[in-house]
Amino acid sequence: MEVRETLQLRSFAEYKEAYQKSVENPEEFWDAIAEKFYWHKKWDKTLEWDFTKPEVKWFQGGKLNITENCLDRHLDKLGNKTAIIWEPNNPDEESRHITYRQLFVKVSRFANVLKNNGIKKGDRVCIYMPMIPELAIAMLACARIGAIHSIVFAGFSSSAIASRINDSSCKMLITANEVYRGSKPVKLKEMCDEALKNTPTVQTVIVYRRTVEPTPMTPGRDKFWFEELQKAEKECPAEVMDAEDVLFILYTSGSTGKPKGMVHTIGGYMVYTTYTFANVFQCDHFAPTGVKNQSKPKSDVYWCTADIGWITGHSYIVYGPLAAGVTTVMFEGVPSYPDYGRFWEICDKLDVTHFYTAPTAIRALAKQSLDLVNKHDLNSLKVLGSVGEPINDEAWHWYNDNIGKGNSPIVDTWWQTETGGIMISPLAGITPTRPTFATLPLPGIQPVLMDEEGKEIPFKSQKSEGRLAIKYPWPSMARTIYGDHQRYKDVYFSAYDKMYFTGDGAYRDATGNYRITGRVDDVVIVSGHNLGTAPIENAINEHLSVAESAIVGFPHDIKGTALYAYVTLHENQIGDDELRAKIREQVSNTIGPIAKPDKVQFVEGLPKTRSGKIMRRILRKIASKDTSNLGDTSTLLNPDVVKDIMENAL
Ligand code: WT7
């Protein structure tokens, strides 16, 4: 039996039994699951935890390498199975099919490239790459030798790259010369060169040539991927790691300017992402009762459309699916190129069985003509997934009716960069779905709702609403923020006593299904991207004409939430369209195009509390054109500014 089969729950009754066991005896529960994996040495202690420090350790004393679980152990039975199908941006270019054996060889060889360039266990390696198989190869190669990868989404600006590299003192940067995304080339290496002016720790840059265009190279520092490969040995034994050694750092936005480098460790992350992948998606197991896929008894093709630069890609394009021995698709392009039918064309072409995407993409695609859907055969699809933000009712039904044809369960998966893996979600074909609800917690997850006074709202078969916290550790939770454990404690473990606070609000129905209602802190989710308001405000404030600014989200058809900037200017400065454009440009350069505010309103002042904190609640209401009840503004330091802001709202 393959590892995946040994992990999969098969019925609602089995789910309930597993859930109960996971709460009554968590250590025994996770022991039995972790035993399904390949370890060099079994752990001595399953769990040690103290949320007041906070400190969490899973499978202490266990020795393993995650790549042996993703690659080596499959070679016997699945060596010739396709591990990765890569679909290029340009539909006329050939797809690549890479078997588990081929991937194993490529990872081993590239791991030797890292070693040859001085990378050792524990070193940090920054990866800034497009969606090509070499991105997965680079991350697995790091894991093979015990180096820590820090992937920076290849849509981020050079200053975002530099600050992330510097925060964790990366020794190496791996990138590509350029990439086509849609019809536009993106010059990644030029972005890197700009960043590298301010990153003294980077000694080597490895450059994958994705296009034939000339590439600027700095002698001594920059090396081509292929040339380095020529010099590398084929075999690379896996470094034997401790379960609690760091696997990767991934930056996510916070409510202060600096991004948080979330630290994930090897053992717990592997166990949890693989277990949840196998159970939520039920690949190579679940077939709906409809007519689908009957003539095609081949193994499932799973496609998650996220970028590997986000946690979704880490956990559910690379580590989870590969450890489960499933075929995973990587797509280089965008949903709109060459037209808005591209996703459906790919599903048809590759016989995709599992399709996992974000509500923002669903909404954008739902706006297009249905012909773009209906001209493709979507009969292979069995399971649909959603992630990144609450999925609204309309999008849920469009997805269900037109893509799933009413007989593919939708798994609405709620989780976070910090949680490492899916926390609340249906299990496809096994537990019930409910439109716009992430439904039930996965085995091992103990969510709670907290009221305004910080007290737990007990579950008594009644509807309730509150803030979502988790009261017991799970294996893939982030262990700390790189270099700033105090901040980790402050952000996640200070709101409630001995609990992890998610930053989200949630509603719970009478049967215990959760619906996530959105962020309650200063983080805005734009098109599924988690953006902190503070770094955007900082970027705006750097403009010489700007005195102060406040960013809030407002509802947007496609993006879900878009950004609205309120800006006050220094004396004698003129707020015109030119300045608006400059401000948006500035944000784009410092953070990236996704953070550009849709609207920029110049205001005389920002509403503030007496302690000087900007009252974003009021600004949010004005931006959302919901000014009927602004609440009590009399306690403001400057109540008069509110009228001006309302009158000139965009
Ligand atoms: C925030 C985490 C998890 C990978 C992608 C985003 C929101 C995520 C859902 C969902 C409602 C969701 C939450 C969460 N979110 N999934 N299914 N339903 N909201 O990871 O960038 O760390 O963002 O995304 O607000 O806190 P992230």
TrEMBL record:
Domain AMP-dependent synthetase/ligase stretches: 72-477
MF-aspect GO terms: acetate-CoA ligase activity
Pfam families reported for this sequence: ACAS_N, AMP-binding, AMP-binding_C
EC number, as in UniProt: 6.2.1.1
Domain AMP-binding enzyme C-terminal stretches: 536-613
Positions of the Acetyl-coenzyme A synthetase N-terminal domain: 15-70
Superkingdom to which the source organism belongs: Bacteria
Descriptive protein name: Acetate--CoA ligase
Source species of the chain: Aquimarina hainanensis
